[in-house]
Amino acid sequence: MKHTLSILLVTLAAFSTACAAKTEAAECKLEITASDKMKFNTAALSVPSACKEVTLTLKNEGKLPKNIMGHNWVLSAAADAKEVATAGASAGLDKEYVPQGDKRVLASTKVVGPGESTSVTFDVSKLKAGEKYAYFCSFPGHSMVMKGIFTIK
Ligand code: ZN
User: Fold this and answer.
1) Ligand 1 centroid to residue 113 C-alpha, Å
2) Potential cystine with 70: which of 20, 66, 93, 117 (Cβ 3.0-4.6 Å)?
């Protein structure tokens, strides 16, 4: 009887550890959608400070062609957002509207067309909790409205 109980406890412990790990991983995954209305579905994203890496998935739910209403997702420090968006817009579609080799870009996805989705996994261990980071779409003309605040809680 005692033996059975200890096996049960070990099983329970293993089960709860697996659950905790699963919850943490789920919190480090973000999803955002973009539309033909030149909008993201949210103006704020955050992840817990326990996340070392974050995976963001961008879905384009629009119908307009990629060269007319394509979208990407770019992350930078809030103070750099305007300049990075401008540099990105002039980088061109073949560069995914992201300035190449620019260290101010903390993460970026490729440009997605209608019905497409893409993901990016990036390191957040160097980002500071409480600090405001900015995300935006750097497709020309979009960053003024397609933007939001990214924070580490
Ligand atoms: Zn866009």
Assistant:
1) 10
2) 66
**pLDDT over 60 at 99, yes or no:** yes
Cα 150 to averaged position of ligand 1 atoms, centre (Å)? 17
In a 10 Å sphere around its CB, with 0-12 CB exposed, 13-18 middle and 19+ buried, how is residue 40 labelled? buried
Which of the pair, 143 or 24, is modelled with greater confidence? 143
Tokens 């817990």, residue? 48
C-alpha 139/C-alpha 70 separation (Å) is 7
- The DSSP bridge pattern shows strands 44-47 and 107-108 to be unpaired
Give residue 138 CA to ligand 1 midpoint distance, Å: 7
Task: Quote the ligand 1 centre to 29 CA distance (angstroms).
Answer: 21
Write the single-letter amino acid at 140. P
- The Cα–Cα gap between 34 and 61 comes to 6
3-state secondary structure (DSSP) of residue 91:
helix
Mean pLDDT of the chain: 90
12/1 Cα distance (integer angstroms): 17
| pLDDT of residue 13 exceeding 70 | no
pLDDT at 56: 98
